[in-house]
Amino acid sequence: MIFSDQDIDFLKLTDRQFEELCFDLLLKLGYEGLVWRQGGADSGRDIEGKLTITSSLVGLYEEKWFFECKRYEKGISPEIINSKIAWADAEKPKHFVVFVSSYLSNNTREWLNKISHDKHYIIHPIEGKHLKDILLKFPDLISKYFGNRFSKLLIDAQRNWLIHDLLPDLNTISLLLKNIDDGKLSIDDLAFLWCSANIRTNEIDEWPDGCEPFNLNFLFNNLVRYSNTSDLLISSEDDISLNNFAVGSTIWNITYPNYIVARIVLNRYSESRKALYSFIGDNEEKGLEVLIEAAGNFPTKVRHVPKNARDEIKKSIDIFIRTYELNGLKEIH
Length: 333
Prior knowledge:
Distance between the termini: 33 Å
Helix content: 25-40%
Structural class: alpha/beta
Number of strands: 12
Largest sheet: 5 strands, mixed
Strand content: 15-25%
Order of helices and strands: HEEEEHEEHEHHHHHHEEEEEH
Radius of gyration: 25 Å
């Protein structure tokens, strides 16, 4: 998903939710041994953790970090964090971080600058604007804490594929396509929905009861704008192993009559990687080849074929047929 800082409103969270958000962010940033001190006395920090540092001189070593989380609408005064500074003096962390949903008052900023010179630890104030900039690197966290139910549903569907190799059913796909804000869809979101919809459509003989038919044109047009390569995405049968695939046409979609769709395993890496693949042409011989990998931030390749897509699709079909002959396959159709 694509978000801006305007999508992040810390005041919509409770104090506990703000702490949980900071905890999840620290996990993303690689902190280990995190302890969230919920309820009661927190001994001067809401969260405690360790960060492993790699030095070419001395090797690996650990640093102790304390984190305090303050969700406020207005500026933070010195009195609000003074007791936390006293605990840090006693507990001796290497770093003390104050997450602030708003901002530090001028008095607090000057006070921290003065006392920091006498501390054996480093004080890091992370104010609201800076915190938003960091969060924008992790759209799944923004979706979890600030998104609507449809952006959360999409994130859950992607996670289910990544972890359990399960694609959303057609009812879920229909719900997402009808309600999702397409202006917030990233290239991997578009590719996931596009490939899932086309693969799932070709796995059925009857349209599910209660499932509204959907139109994929907006996905096609948006993915064309995201085209990021001119090379064949699958150039050899050595690139892949097959789980299943389908070619030809489907009665459910007359707009895109030429296609090959597949669940595949990529053999390009030291460890095999699941992926979804589609190469689909419309009635005007325009084509779209899409490959999305089940790894990290869902690496995605998109190739737009502006003409003669049918001939290009046939080249890919030949590669998949040779792959099928090499390692066997359970076909979708």
